[in-house]
Amino acid sequence: MAQAALAEPSLDPADRLWAGLASAQHLRADFIQVQERRLLRAPLTSTGTLAFERPDKLRWEVSGAAASVFVVSGTEVSARMPGVDRVVHLDLATQPQLAGLVTGLTVWLAADAAVLRERYDVTLPEERVAVLSPRDPILRQALSTLTVRVDPTGAYVSQVELMEPDGDRTTITLTSVDLESALPAATFLLD
Description:
Elements: H1 2-7, H2 13-22, E1 26-36, E2 44-53, E3 57-62, E4 68-73, E5 76-80, E6 88-91, H3 96-110, H4 113-119, E7 120-126, E8 129-134, H5 137-140, E9 145-150, E10 157-163, E11 169-178
Antiparallel strand pairs: 1-2, 1-11, 2-3, 3-4, 4-5, 5-6, 7-8, 8-9, 9-10, 10-11
């Protein structure tokens, strides 16, 4: 299905890229996240798993000493963080700035061509690589560019790089990507 979307000649190159990514209804993957911060002597590396299901469900789970879980389900965000003995719940419908930030940082998974055209300037410096520059001034305070690298089949994002205005960078690399297995409903619940 993703290959057919990439081969569709009537779509512009960016729309072909998004169509290939949007063909996956759900995704489960392991990730390696490397944060390069000016205030740190060495990059900070974390690992974990992520799950995504269309249209609006995400689970981001960090392993190890700083274990944490972040779940988005519709307009509800739930989080369990180190040192906090309870799950924090937020309603994005009542916090538009946070909603914009969550959407801005997860847009690479959703691959919604209409949203991407509306909210980002998109350039394609090479095949299966898109650089997104946010148009929203609030999001631009946190994110300069978002570089999305798509796997050779065009079916999923293999790496994303978030560049911040101050030069700090976060690179997320997905491994062991599963687009076939159904995700249990409990994946997107956090209590």
